Structure formats: C-alpha cells, structure tokens
Fold these 4 entries.
Entry 1:
Amino acid sequence: MAKAVLDALRGKFGAGILATSSHHGEDVAIVTRGALLDIARYLRDDPAMAFALPCYCTCIDYLGLEGLQPSAGTVPTAYASRTRGEGSGAPGARFAVVYELRSLVHGQRIRLKVPLAEDDLVVPSLSGLWPAFNWLEREAYDMYGVSFEGHPDLRRIFMYEEFIGHPLRKDYPKERRQPLVRREWTDE
Amino acid sequence: MGLEIATSKLEDAANWGRKFSLFTYPFVTACCGMEFMSVAAPKYDLARFGAEFPRFSPRQSDLLMIVGTITERQGPILKRVYDQMAEPKWVIAFGVCASTGGFYQNYSAMPGADQVIPVDVYIPGCPPRPEQVLDAIMLLMKRVQEGRGHSQVRHKREQLLRTGG
C-alpha cells in the first residue's frame, strides 16, 4: 500500500526523485530541491494521497559521509554500524532536510529528504502548505543554518539573537559556550 | 534563652531569627522541581526548619533555590531575579545541574549557576535525596547564624570599607 505512494511519486515526478527506499514500514523518498514544492503540493492535495498531517521537519548533518549513497552495501564497517550505511543521498551533499508527512485518511506515512550542499543550503519552505512547519523550519534554521525560501518569519527559535553559528552542526565544538552574562568572581 | 539573647550581640539575635525564617524562592527550571516538592511536602517537611513558605516573588524572599538546569539563555533572568531580592539573601544550588551544569556539557547549558550569581550551598545529586536537601538547609542555617552567607560577608566588607577606608 505504502509502496503505491512511492511508485506514484516516481511515475509522476521522474527526475525529481533521486531514490526511494522502504525498510520496516518506513518509506523514504529522496527528492531534489527543485521538485520538493510540487511533490509536497501533490501529496497534500491529491485525494489518493491526502497527506494532511505534518509530523516533523528537521535536518541531518552527514559530515564525513557526504559521498555515501543511501543504504549502500559497500560502506566502511565503522560507518555502517553507526549510521546503517546511509549518506545524505547525493554525492557532495552534507546536509539533508527531512520532512515527514502522514495521511490520516489512508493511514500512511512518507518521509521526504532533500540533500543539500554546505555552500548552497537553501530549500523552499513548506510552511505555506502546512503552517505547522513554520516553527519546525525555524528550528532547523537555528540549529543547522538552513535557509528556507519563502518562510514568513525566519528567525532563531531556541538560541538567543547574539548566538553565532549553528550548534547542532557536527563541526560546532561541543564545549564552545557563548555566555550572555557572567559575574565578576570575588571571594564571597 | 531570653537571657542569652539579651546578652549577645544584636547581629547574632537577628541572624538567629533569620535562620529560622528562610523564605524560599524556588527558581524551578527542570526535573529537580519534583524533588523540591517532595522536600516541601509533609513526609520530609521543610517546614520543620522554618523554610516552609515558598514566596513566588523574589522581593519577598531571602533564599533563592536554583532547582534545575540553567541555560545560557536563562542567565540574565536568573541574575535579574537575584538582584531583585532584598538583602541579606542566600542562594542554594539544588542538584548537580545548578551546581556544575551536570552532564549537560554543551552549547546551551551554563556550567553552574555560580557563573552568574554567588552560591552559598551546593547540593550534588541527580536529583538529590530529600535528606541531602535538609542537610544543606541545616548547613545554610549554620552559616546564617555565623554570618558567613555571601551577602552577609559582602555587607560586612562594604561596612568596613565605609568606616575604615
């Protein structure tokens, strides 16, 4: 049943779908940035799809795994055990923005992944289609620095305005702190 | 007892009163708050030590209980709450997060509330046992009596500077 969704996407969007996979009931379509908006609109509006419920939007940093294909069989063991051998899905793409949608009518889920290169971290915003993605996209912007094109209010949501950088990137030093306030130490 | 108070210094008498009427301001940010409720509830009964009355206004309290993780973003708020409290005041860091940041060694967690305000007593534990908290209260009461709380020491120093300097 769920495979029907992936088949429909492949049939309808062709080159817009880079790859699909279906493991343990998780249906994933790796899509190009250019096709994302059309695919999303189709998934929402087509009665046979009716993905009305936006589950989440997030981002993945595949630092060091850029070259790997999803579910490739020939990955180094250390990587494989850590990541089940998944890369971002496109060579040279360090990040992947992930959208998960659910269709309550048909009882289906689908995950859309958009591979993105580090120097071109832009993706069309889906907050126009599902308003619930507004804050989730702000979170992805805050933590990973993804620019969502067409987002109505792209500001940081968790970190403070003074914060520099994006803390959930794998190359953000985990001990680096950016304090807002510190006291002067006396012998109190 | 009456004779003892009459013959001791006025400051000691005031401190004796202070230590048995600590008005707490629970600055509760995380799961340690549950343990704080447990300490305040009848089984462990913080009221036995005269610290029974949580005031939810910093202006009416003299003991700031930092209960839970302090993030960098909360730092200015914590400092503001502390600054609003009237002197003399005392601070307890409740739990390992408030004391040192705990296991949150990352971009968002402050490595201990004492980065922003002075702390009198640290309670380790994740979360601390209620008995530990009572122990800390008793330790603080001892300090209050001896005039060794941070704001008491600061007050004394400022007085010395004014009169002696």
Entry 2:
Amino acid sequence: MGRKSLSVTDDRSSVAELEELAFELRQKLLELCGTYEGAVHIGGDLSAADIFTALFHYGLNVDPTDIANPERDRFVLSKGHAAVCMYIAMAMRGFFSYEGIVATYGQLDSAYGMHPCKVQLPGVEASTGSLGHGLPLAVGMALSARHRGEDHRVFTLLGDGETGEGSVWEAVMAARSNRLGNLVAFVDRNRQLMTSFGEERVVFEPYPDKWRAFGWNVVHIDGHDMTQLVAALDALPEPDSDTPTVIIAETVKGKGVDFMERNLAWHAGSLGAADLERALTALNASREKESV
Amino acid sequence: MPVTFTFGEMLSARSVIGSTLAELGDEYPNLWVLTPDIGATLVEFRDKFPERFVDVGLAEQACVGISAGLAYDGNIPVVSGMLPFLSMRALEQVRTDVCYPNLPVKIIGTHGGLVGNGGSTHYAVEDLALMCALTNMTVTSVGDPLMVGEVIRQSMTMQGPIYIRLAVGKKDRVLYEPGRHEVRIGKGIIAREGTDATIFTHGTTVAQALDAAEALAEEGHSVRVVDMFTLKPIDEELIAQSAAETAGRFVVLEDHLSYGGLATRIADVVADRGIRLTSFERLGIPQVYAGLGEDEQLRDKHGYGLSATIAAVRRAVAAVR
C-alpha cells in the first residue's frame, strides 16, 4: 500500500508475530471470560480472533493516539456481539487498557459492554449489536470517503449467520451500485448460528457465489491461517477502484478451545475457575498441535 | 430560487422540499440527500449535487443505515421517502443506527395520515407514536407548505435526528402570511386566536381546524387553533397557557391514530402537570384499517372531518367545569 502510515510506531507485524498476538488475544479473552460473571459470546469471539488480529495489527491504517484522524481506516463491527474480542484486540494495539476492560466489562456505566457503543466508547467507529446494520453504516462511511477524495478504506466484519438479514443484501447492492472499491467486508464464516449449524436450517451455500452474483470481488480464505489473512489484506484492490471486496473467512466457532469448537453450547457462556484452567490448557494444546 | 407565495394559495410542499434542499446544498457542503426510489421531488438537488445524491432503490433499511454511516463521518444526511415505509420498514435503523448515537439524520417524507388514497399499506397512521417513542428524536408534522422549508432549514443546525411529516404534499394551502408567525421547532403556533376553546392540531388538519374555527365564529364561538407542528419536544407552556386562556376546553384533531399521537402527548402534559381541564376530546383515526377514499372522505368516514370537528367544539364550549 502506498498510503502513509498514521502511527509512527507501526512496524507492521510479521505473520509469526501476528500468530503470537492472536494466541495472546484468545488467552486474554478466556481470562476475561473467567473473571466476568455474565455470559460472553465466546464462540464467535474465538472464531474471529485471527481476523481481529490481522486487522488491528496489520490491515488497518489507524493511530491509537489519534482516534479522530480523518485519514484513518474505519472499522465497523457488524457482528456486534464479538465486541469484547474487538476491545481486547484494540487494547493490544494501544487503544484501550486491557486491565480497564477486565475491571469494568459489563459493569454499571462501563464503556465496555456486550455490544459496542460509540457514545460510551468513542474509540469504536459505530454503535452496533443488532445484526444486519454494520454493512449499511460502512457503505455510508465509504461514500463519504469517496466524495471527499480520501483514500482510506472502510472495513466491516459480519458473521455469516448475520447475512441472513435482508438489510445486508440491500447494502451489498448499494455498495456495488456506488462502486465502492474502498469497502472491505469480512465474513466470519463459522457455519454456526446461535441454535443451529450452517446449512442445517438455513441454506447459505453456494455462499461465495452469492456475493459474486452481486458483483463483489470475492476472496475465499481460511480465516485461521494468518498467512492467508495477510495475503488477502495485501491484495486488496486500491481504494479508488470500483469493486467492493468481501473476504469470506472460513472459521471454526470456538476456535482454539477443543471443547468449545463446533459446540452450540458455547455460542455464549461464562467460565468458572476450573473451566478457565481447562480452556487455557486446551488453548495451549491447540497451539502445540498447530505448530507441529 | 426563492419560493414566494401568498396566504391562501395552494402550493406543493414537495416542491418546497426540493427547492429548499437545493438551496441548502450550497450553504452546507456536507449535506447529502438519500432516497429509496422516491426521488421525483428531489430532482433539483440531484441535478445540482449529483455526487451528494444517493438513490438506493427500494431499500429503506439500507437507506437509513447508509445515512447514519454518512453522519458518523460528519455529514448531514436527509432521507426522503414515503413515511409508511421509512417509519416502519426502517424503524429499527432509525432507532438503533440514528437515534442511539444521536446522529443528525433528517427524515422527511410524505403520506402521513389517511392521504393519497393508496390504501392502508400506504398510509402512515402510527408513525408519530413510533417516532415520539424514540430517544433523541425530534418529531414534527408540518401542514403549511412554506413552513416545510423553514423547518428543514432550522433542522440543519440541530445536533440530533428529526422526523418531518407531510401529507401528500402536492397541493397544500398556504396557511400563514409569511413573516406573521415565528416558526421555531419546539414551539407551537397560535394559528388563530380564541377564548372559548382550543383546537390543537398538526399537519394537514390545521387547515381544517381553521375552517372549523371560522364556521364556529359565525355561531359566536371564539376558537383558538394551535398548530402544534412539533410533537416532540412538546410545547408544554402553550398547553398550560391555552388551558388558562380558553376555559380549559381542548379538542385535539389529527390525521393519525387518535391514541399515540398529539392527543396522547397533550394528555401526558395535562396529567403530569396537573392542568385542570373542562373538557378534552380527541379526533383522529380509530384503530381500524381505513379503506379507500379521498382524504376528506376518509376523514368524514372515520369521524374527524370538518363537521365532526365543528360538532366536537360545540360540545366543548357547552361543557362547564
């Protein structure tokens, strides 16, 4: 990318460093899940952890010390229930304090809630949580950037289940109609809804073809493979191009913790002390397994 | 070009929307106009500022969501369309994307009330109840076509969202001599002075209330007409003042469900402030799907037409405390 980096301290991380950061993100997520008494959307947080890491430590041109910089890339979390994973990823990038998140998450008057609120937490780009809202917001931001001749990108992250919402496809059409090559949508394709597995009750396939049919540039990757995530971000069309891009990232809900993976019981939950220990052990084991 | 019309003439409120936005587009380089395929009235803006005009086609939800995205980035988006769809199909986007972060999105549209003879799919009759329920939303319903321009103009400097309701907007009576009344969002307008009773109304039925007051004057009744074009925030002082100055006799007339709109807003103020009334009657749409008919026919059929208004005021002035 020929664009200037907003953050002077930003030497973009290598794939190995990103993998380490993603591991740390999962660890911190589980720890928070162990301290917070209420339920955390742990399944969809873990499926998106690598995407968040690739975005906040590699793809997004942002400066944690200047959150209103007009040249920054925008990121709209359309799957708002993964907010805590985003908060921690952003904390690791220097936006927030991880300790602050852990100490106040979900508490009265906290800035860090189950779904992101722009009013309470100005570091996030938009208030989201209700599904099917993020892509239209991102389209508006991309239109604005285009009109001003700014060359930043607008990114958003959707869950695949979320793309059952009709408003998503309205925005898909609007993005194509307005030729928003500065718009990049990630889909966390974890193939689970809250109460069913993908294709079981809702048929999504042929999924990439659906996006192609709407005229988008479709990139289909393994959403847990950092090399592929980085390559997809490196290969994005220029922001002044005409075609919006969707990166369909095949993922596993609960990724990294064996007893949570592909388990409908772990859409959301909380971890007691024993469960936390078990989850952290599983996370370590999963890393060792992947490194061999 | 400035619109100059005089009192009593018929004017298209829609054309006022179009010309006002086209004017404001110069003054506000961050003003955008978005529409879900209801662009005929917006041609002037579209032709002048094509790069700030977005027609998403039939996609109300995305239209409102996109407007919120634009507003997050410092723009002033105006969403213009038909209110039955903007207020209901896109209600959650209005509530969650616009009102929750308190973004300066202006929603302006037509078909508020039993107007246009499109049948119940095409009448917005619940919209004011829905919009008044939303935190941060300012809610207006404008009858006088020239006032439409003034309300849009004032809305430009408002921090949060506003809902501006019109009837069909093709042929509207100019109700006020320009300059005679101060138009200020949040303040009701005393459209006609009177001392025996007050008719509170908004939007398309202001003209009818004025006609009723004129007819009642011939019977010797002095009837005040308040154009409560801002339903939220409601002008509490004018309600209290009218109770004191018109013998506590209130008739509320509106082209909206008789529960949930202006009558409910006023009843809330009366209850909350302990205002003593002599009589209170609401005239509006009952909870039925209204059927077909011309605007006036439907108002008559459903009990809030001109003769029903006159009859209600007669009952009011006969009431004693």
Entry 3:
Amino acid sequence: MRYRVFDKSKEKSVIHNAGNARAGGCDVHVDGQRRLLEIDPRSMVGTFVEPGSRLERNVRFQSLQIERLAGEADFRIQGECSGSGGRWSWFDFGAGPDAPGQKERRAAKKDQDAAIRSPMTGKVLQVAVKKGDVVTAGQLVCIIEAMKMENKIVAPTDGVIQKLSATAGALVSSGDMLATVGPKAAKK
Amino acid sequence: MFKRVLIANRGEIALRVARTVREMGLESVAVYSDADAGSMHRKFADFAIRLPGRTSKETYLNIPLLMQAIKDSGADAVHPGYGFLSENQEFVQAVLDVGVTFIGPTPSSMAALGDKISGRNLMKSCGVPVVPGSEGALKDLADLEKHAKEIGFPMIIKASGGGGGRGMRVVRAMNELKDAYEVCVREAQSYFGNPQVFCERYIDAPHHVEFQVLFDQHGNGVHLFERDCTVQRRHQKLFEEAPSAFLSHEQRMRLGEVAVKAGLAAKYVGVGTVEFICESPEKCYFMEMNTRIQVEHPVTEMITGVDLIREQIRVAMGHKLRFKQSDLHIRGWSMEARINAEAPEKEFLPAAGRIKNFQAPAGPFVRFDSHVYAGYTIPAEYDSMIGKLIVWDENRESCIVRMQRALSELMVDGVPTTAKFHRRLMEHPDFRSLEIHTGWLEQKKNDLIRPDWELGEAASLPLDGAAVALSMVDQSQQDELNSSTDAWKSAAMLNGLRLS
C-alpha cells in the first residue's frame, strides 16, 4: 500500500510504502483544534498526542489521503479508519473552520478546467468522447479495464472536453490525466 | 460493565488480548516501556501510554506507575496477561481500590490457590490427588530431615511463592539435604520475598498435564480439558499440545471434575490452570494452580472452539457462563511451538537483536501469535519469546505433519530461533510414540540439537535450519553463500540446492 505524506522536517511530500520504516508527522485540525499527527508507515497507524495528557490516541487507517493546505504547515487528511468492534468510520481531519486558504483554493478550483484522472492502473478499452464534445455530468467518457473488470469513467460536471489524452488500448496508471472538462461559457 | 480495558502487559499477549477486546466492541489501552516503543502492541491498541524506563522493574512491574497509567487513560478494567503482575495480589487490590475491574480472580482466591502450600491443602480437601509431602511450610532443617525419612528420595524442596521453574532443588541423598535447604530458603527470600519452603516426593520422568478451568461469579465452573506440556527444558515449557495422548478419557474427565470442584470451593472467578504431574496415566498428582491466562492457552482454544480471553472478559463483566460441561467437546488435535530468540545449540542462549527479514507461517489451520515484524528489534530487557506457532488438525499424526509444514514456512533473519529445534522434535521417534517425560529433552539433547547449527549461524545464513542444507554444500558454494547479504537470494539458492 502506498500513500503520500508530507515530511514536516523537509517541507516536501514523500511517498511512503508500508514496510518502509520512516515516520512522518504533520499538524492537522481535529474538532477545530490543531494537533500533531504522527504516522507510523509500517502499521498505517496515525497517533494523536492529546495536549496536556500522556494518552496517545491511535487511528488505524484503511485508506489515507493527505493534502497540504495552502500557505500553512497544516494538512487535511481524509480516509477511512477502523475502531473497536470492527466499526469503520470516515474521517476528515483538518477541515476545521480556521483552515487558512482552503476556501480560496476551492473557489479558484471551480473556475478551472476539471481534470478527469484515472482512478486505477489499467487499460483504456474505449473512448466515448472527442475533443470539443459537449458533455453533461455523469456522461460516459471512457472505459478502463482493470483486474478483469470494466470501469466506466464519467464526466464530473457539465461542460466541454478541452483536452483528451486517453486513447483506446493505452495503459494508464492511477492518477494519469484522461481528459479535462472546461466550462461551456469559456469556450464561446 | 466496563468499556475501556488497559492491558498491563507487552508483546504477543498484549496484542492477543487487544484483538479480542476490539472484537467485543471495547476500547483497548496499551502500556509500553521505552524499550518497547517500537512494539506492535503500542500501535495496535486504541490508546497507548508510555511507561518511562526500560527494565521490567521500572515499567511493567511498577505498580504506582501502572496505577497512574490506569488513571490517566480513563480505563475501567485491567487485563493483566500472564507473567509480570498477573498473580500479584497487591496490584489486584490496588486496582480494585480505585473502583476499576480486575479481569481475573479476587485477591483472596488468588492467595488461596496461587500459593503452593495453601493451594495444595485446598486441592487435597476437595479430593484432588497430591504428591506425598510436608503438608505445609517446613519449620527448620530437622523438620525437613523428619519428612525426608517418611517420603524417601529423590525429593524436591520448593519455594512456597515460587514458579516458572525457579526456587526449587532436587535432593537425592540425606547428606545433600542441608545445602539444598539453605540455598532454597535464600532463593525463596530473594526471588519471591517469602522464605517459606516445603518438600515433597520428586517424581522422576513424569508427564506434565494441566487442566484449563473457567468459572463465573455465579457459582458455575467448567474445565476445557487438558494440555500436555511435557516437552520442557529446565522446567520451562517449549512445546505444548492438546489433548494429551497420555491420559485415558475416564482419567481426563475425573481430573477435570476434581479441578472444577476445587475452584468452586475457593470461589474462584475467571480462567485458571490446574497443573498435574503424572507418574503414569493412572497416577496424576496436583502440582500447582496458575491463576491467570497461560502462554499455551491457544491449543485449548483450537480444540474446543472457545475464545478463552473473551470468556474471561465476559465473566469479569458478571455474565454467566454460556456453556455447561456437557456442551464442551474435544475436536481434533492442536500443537503450539514456542518460537524463542534463542540458540538451541548454545544451551538455548537468548539473543536480542534486530529481525532483518521476517515471514510468518500461514495457510490452513495455522495461527501465529506474535508481536514482531521485519525491522523489529528484540529488546534485551524481557523474555526471548517472539511468537507462538499454533496448528490444528484432526489427529496427532496429521497435526505433526502440519506443524512441520508451518515451521518450514517461518523465516526469521537476524536472530537465531528455536524453530530448528522444533523441526527435529517433530521427527524424533520418542516424541512421535510419546515416550517422553519432563527430563527427556535434557537426556536426548544430542539427538535434538545439532552442533553444526552454530556453524550455520556464524556464516550468518538467512534461514533457520539452513545449516542442514549447508552440510550438503561444498566449500566453494558455502563461500558464495556467505558473501551473499540478500536474504531472499540466499533462500532461493538454498532451495535450489535442496532440489538438486
């Protein structure tokens, strides 16, 4: 399992493999409070040290996505974790109201072209759109075959296909750009 | 009813308990010493608290420090595991005094059964056969001499508060009595803080059979049959199996019944083990009772289908037992090999150090209870056990084959282990035909331990038992193997050599 985590000491992102004995640490917001989260890459366990307490709280991550928030040493961490009784819960650390720059970033994102990225490593079986096509949210863009399954990739929003990198028969990795969807108004 | 369980232990048992705690929907709190900062139990639990210090005395045996950890963690129950403070009445009382549940017996029944002399007397009054002996603490040397004349030789002098094979002396002649008595009293005082000793007949070449018992708070009790722990080295168990092929079913049910009767008489609550020493299948004598979960409990879980930790926690919550004696049955056979970081060829010398590469056995009916991983450093401060390999199969013969298969899958690179010893044990005709006793290993050491294992380790071979394969390799190939630092590469080469 691979996940991205920001190395606080080096202020840059590093890729960790489970089994790679390097620890990462970052500040996140939990219930509006800033907390240090240490991640043990081997066990995929994140540990919060409660302020003023000796109690370390362990969170077992099943999936993990770490995003650095603009301009600060703060991070937003989303994923799934398991708790007692085999309960699973979705967590979103760092989405506190005071997370600086976050709102601006999200607003800026809206005006940009929306990228459609491959959610998996696999093979493009079929491309259902052409450059310049007008698409509606949910419309089929392409089909990617991975692990004996066909997966439909659909447009995230209404708009026009601005760039199209996916070609039938091509092998793609997780995160590869397939196409971008731009606002209709921008085209006209 | 409690919600948050602090596990006052370390290593594999802390992890074992935390797993069941999680399944029950409860929260777990781990405690860890500085030497255990990288141990798996710390990260596995829902919460963790550091115990500053490295030695057992500073950390896992430090009652005030643990009481503070219980307070800081908000735990409302404590599981003691085995060893450390699991049979310490002072700790149990301290836990109860702050209104926290202790998952185990009350201090009074712990005292009544855990102490060797009072335990023996209680067992005797309930019809449990006991070894002929002094019926209590010895007053002085003259008292011992009087008993020696009645009991005869060989006899054994034991510390009343002892355990784990420490604080006992075997005496084979009258002129050895004085020295043995004095040493034993001195050891009893320094190791266990209690100078009382007693004596009993020493049974040469016995089997060690023990019964698992379980009691609730409502006067119900069952036994979950027996385990055979005859393979021992200086009173330390190395290998256990269940059931015991040594006992007849009638004897099994009779001993189990009296063990339950004695537990009920002591108002015992929780899990416990009644240990017997057997001269013959018909002549089994009570030895001692352990008032905690034991290392070898998984073999009982495998043959009965009962999660003993779960039942232990349930009865501590005040629930009634979920089954009667008639609901329990033995299904198949189970064996446990203790994987210790020890060099069998060097008198089982423990070896701390870093595990460079590690692969746990898996596959059908194989369980590996362990806290180690590749990159883990075995601390020198605690015992050398790094895992327990447990297998199940339908009968003893097929169970041996399965154990051999599982042992061959285990790979520990960086420290020697007892796995190679267990492989030879599985092949030994005496073990297969059950012609063994607790002193057997010491007698058959040369059959079970190859001196050239050391050669294999000196050459820093990645695989356990690789030395067996090495003996077939000529010197030039051996040099080539020695120069290889890549564990996987060497493993592949050895496999190739085995095939050719």
Entry 4:
Amino acid sequence: MAAYGLGATNRRLTGHGSAPGFRFTLYAIVSIVVMVLDQRGGWLNQARFLLQAAAYPLQLAVSSPSAAWAWIKETTQSREALRAENTRLRLRESELALRALNYEALAKENAQLRGLSHALPPIADRWLIGEIVNVELTTLRQRLLLNRGTTNGVFEGQAVLDGWGLLGQTIHTGPWSTEVILVTDPEHAVPVQIERTGLRTIAVGAGNEGTLALPYLPANADVKVGDLLITSGLGGVFPAGYPVARVAEVHRDAIQPLAQVRAVPLARIDRDREVALVWFKDERTNNPDIQPQPTPAQPKTPATSAAAPQGAAAAAPTVPAKATPPPAAATPPAAAPVKAKAAPPPKTPPKAAPEDEAEDAVK
Amino acid sequence: MNARMREPRGRLFLTILLALFLSVVPLPAWLDDVRPAFLVLTVLYWSIAAPRAGGIAVGWISGLALDIFQGSVLGQHALALSLVTYIAVREHQKIRSKPVFQQSLIVMGEIFIYEFIVFAIDGWTGHTLYGPLHWLQILTSAAIWPIAAALLGRSHAPR
C-alpha cells in the first residue's frame, strides 16, 4: 500500500524475529499481575489515584462537546423563558424554605419524643455540590464523573444525592475527579425499605432501562405500585430514610416463589447537571455529640428499649445507621416513644421547654 | 540510528490521543454499540506501518489508558491490545502487502481476538463491561479500516 511510507526502516526488523514475542510475553505478564493486584484487595489504589489524576484533563476534553452544547443552549435561551424559570425557582425556593422550617420543628419533636435529642437520625451535615463532567449510561454501566475529588474531601463509598432522591455512591476517587456508580448500575445494590410497611429488601440496578429491580421479595410480600422506597441504612454506606425510588410495576407469577418488582428512581439521573456529595453527621468519628451519649443512657432503666439501639449506633460510628433506623421506622414506633417520653423530662427539663415553644411557634 | 530519527513518534502520539478521545467520548446508547474501536484501529495501523516507532509498548500503554477511562480492571484492555499489537507487529510485512479489502478482514480477526480477551477477562473478574450488541463493533471497525488507514497514512506519509 502506498500509504505506508516507511518501508526502509522496517526492513531491519526482519532480523529480530524473537524480540516482539519476548516483549509481548513481558507485557502480558505485567498485565496479568496488574489485573490480579487490582482485582484482589485493591493494592493498586494509589496507582489508580495517580492515573485518574493524569486522565482528568482528557476526561474534561471528552466532556467538552456536551458542555459546549449545554452552554450554547443556555446562552441562547430567551428572556421570557429565563424569567419564567426564575419565577418558578423563586416559588420553589420559598416552598422549600417553609418546608425546612417545618422539618426542623419535626426533627426536634421527633428527637424529644424518642428522648434521644443527641442522636437525631443521620442528617446531612455538609454538602458539596459537584458538577457532572462525564456521563456513561450504557446497558451495563451507569456511571458519572464529577469534578470533585479527594482535595475536596471526597472519599470512596460516599453517598451522592440530587434534589429528588438518592443517586449513587462514589467508587473511584482521584484528586480532582470522582467516579460515581449510579443506583441503576447492574453492579450496584442499595438496601431499601418500603416506606408504607417498613419491609426491608435490596434494590439492584437494572441497567439501561433506568430502573431498579427488587429481586428478593417473596410473591406474597406486601408491595404495591406507587410504594416509596427509602434507604434502610443497613450496610452503612447510605443513611436511613432517604428516598430512592417508587415502585412502578409488581408482577406476581403463580409458579415463581419471588415477585418481580420494578421501581423507578426518584433522582433525575438523565437530567441532572449538578449533584450533591453528602457527609452525614455520625459518619464522622470525631463527633462530640454522639460519643458521650451511651454512658449516661445505659444506667437509665426506664428507657432501655429506646436507648439500646442508640447505644449500639454510637458504639460503632463507622456503621452508624445499622442499628437505629429499622426499629424506629418500622411498626413498633407506637411503643418506643411512650416509654421514652417518661424518661427525658427529668433528664433535661430546661431543654425540653424551649423546644416545645419553638414547635408551637412554627405551627 | 538514522532510521530511528524518522520514526513518526509525534504523529503517533497525537493520533492515538485523538483515537482515545473518540473511543471514550459519550455517545447515545444505540450509537455506542456500533462505535468502531478507534483506538484499536489506530494502534493496529501504527504497528503495521511503523512497527519500530512504538510496537507493543504503544498497545500496552493505550490499553492501560482505556482501562482508566472505562473504569475496568487495570490491565484488561492493556493485555488485549498488546496481544493484537504483537500479532500485527510480527506479521506487519504480510499484512502490509495485502490489498485493503483483505486488510479489513485481518483487522476484523484482530478485533475479534481483542474483544474476546476483554470478554473473557470480564467473565473472570465478574464485571460486565459490554452487552452482547457490543460485538457489532467488530464489523463496523473492519468497515471503517480503509478510511482510517488512508487518513492515518496521509498524516505521516513522506511528502
């Protein structure tokens, strides 16, 4: 072929018949060693970290076409459209502010009822908004790349949310970028709970359809279309109580022992441009609010049933949500608060009163 | 030594970077499955046209880069790509003397080997990187080979 213009240089290669074979063997061995190391135990995390840093500029370049398209769309938007969006956002903002007020009051009331004013259910402590740099939504891989990395304090296995629900968790972190595995990725599973009944199960990603499957529910499980799935907090990665998905389809087959249930995630996976990386209060080991609590709580006899799960949660701060949420959110709440209610007033009488006032003021 | 100076290393690097870009740029799902393996094609081209310029090292490093971008097990694409590079480097004179159509067929075989290794390692590691439709890219890659080779040839042929 005329295109290959370097025949002269290559003629010398004929003498080196064995060299490429030897070199290939070398590279093959290196590849296999690297694969084994990467697969078992993740000894290559440091190398991956560095390589991810090196790859980031090209990843930015790869995302530039879609970023440019978004920019063009944004800058050419008409004034009316922007104004309409503005009013819509303002309405939503005031609505959310009201809801936040209400929420604080409810959180206080809840804590007071349970007598656990220092062990509120895990609340987002710190947020970091990350911009989506690159999206990979293929049949078998649902990943995002964010423009935040360990220099921003991001760690592996961190929960990622958007304004509507749970989005996923971080898997590979680089200094300036983070790969996020979405809840819809087939390799991802999230422990969930049906909000209506408290039934716990696991939601597995179903890939390209953008749905979640609940493959471990027996055929007679109480699940209906429209049920809200929230995180159960088991597993320790996600805190309890965050919305994940809504059940869209329940199929019961007489010959199959398990029900086929599909759920649609609430997070707007294909429309988001910014997402939130979240730090939860009791995921931090240096939280002074939680550590001292178990010692005074244990000797107290009347509130044992309420204090026990809390003590367990505080004793293991790395897996915080494991013990507390299920008993609280499931059916027994009627019993627990009644017992707890008797306990807190003698414990902190001055503190309870202003809280009551605050609630009344909001209502 | 003299010949070494003429190796098109700079163009090799640039075209491989471009091919990597094309290989990882996000596309809609239906297009993603038929996207030709640009990186493999480029590496194959250089290992046939200038086997001394890079050789197997180029294949290995490009494969590792692909591993990072795709988040796969490190070494997966590196192994697959270094194997096909090795075959191409070893047989470069035979491949080079064939007409373009036959070259396409050889490239098809090479990309099949490549895909098969990636697929096999997927099975070993328990990940699933690609769906069954992904095998279509063997055909599209073979189809685009004459164009790719002509473009790449233009990029470095002596004027």
